[in-house]
Amino acid sequence: MYLLKAGNSPGSPQMDSFGPNMSLATDLLEKGDRDTVLQYFELCRKFWTMDNGNLDQWSKEVKAGKIPDFGANLVY
Length: 76
Prior knowledge:
mainly alpha, 5 helices, 54% helix
């Protein structure tokens, strides 16, 4: 799965600060693939240390069957 491969990124200064783009995660959630997205969030924790609680909040929403508002993480 491409999303999980992306989660194995070593990060970058931009991703470490602003986080990864969540467009593919949104597409997968729309198709009902919550498990892959939750795994992706866990992988992102390795490099996105300044997520301001986003990964925790998004994980809760996904577990509740919702699609989070990823805000700016859909743009960059």
